[in-house]
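Quick one: structure tokens for this chain, please?
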Amino acid sequence: MKARRAVLAVLLATMASACSPLRIFNTVMPKDAGATRVAHGMPFGPDKRQTLDVYAPRVHGAGQLAVIVFFYGGSWNSGTKEGYSFLGRALAARGFLVVIPDYRLVPQVRYPAFLQDNAEAVRWIRSHVSEWGGDPDRLILAGHSAGAYNAAMLALDPHWLGQDRRAVKGLIGLAGPYDFLPFKGPVVEKAFAGVADPVATQPVHYAHRGDPPAFLATGDKDTLVLPRNSDALAEGLRSHDVLVERRRYPGVGHVGLITAVAKPLRGHANVLEDMTAFARKVTDGPERM
């Protein structure tokens, strides 16, 4: 136990300055026994980055499971689906089918290509999740950091999903950038280089009546993506009578918000239970494990 804590301390210190890939972190995490990966590297497009993994409860009844699609962060320039296996298993163990896509990253692409990949992944998911017991008409789009941006854009801007957006029953955003004009800093400038209409890139611009309910969470020690982003989106959605659950976790930083989902770190913040309670509410409750 002491050795594991020491490893975690080193990993968290290394990742504290940015939303780094969590692949190494994932390898030292104990796995949730109630879930299993049922599909690995399923292609939803021709590029090697256009693949996804699927996690399911080890035991569930005959009914279809609500589906959580999780987009990871990494400044739109890093990350792998394998690094978030701990999250896929954690959510699946609580009665959801969980899908984690990879997608093309900067510098291979820039906006809007990563959103196009995410949208294509969602369309593929709707066509195939029934193979693993998932309900294609009960989707929740979720993400952390840049991934929360991706999830918010797909959930709020009808352009990306078209008629498939009807299946989106909720949005879960963890420490997402939703209102970050003007573009500043090399990360954002590279990801959004050449954009003709910056306003159209902002999730807050798409807050409208009829949007899916949202769970927006931040840590009050986050200095990478400031909590005011979530405050702005929450305010915009509520102004259009959209249900919003806004969570603020004391003493939690940017990376700590997502690592709190991992089994040994759940005492740091109640992120996992709050996420799953929201997901159950908006999807009429998957079976409890």
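Confidence is low (pLDDT under 50) at residues 13-21.
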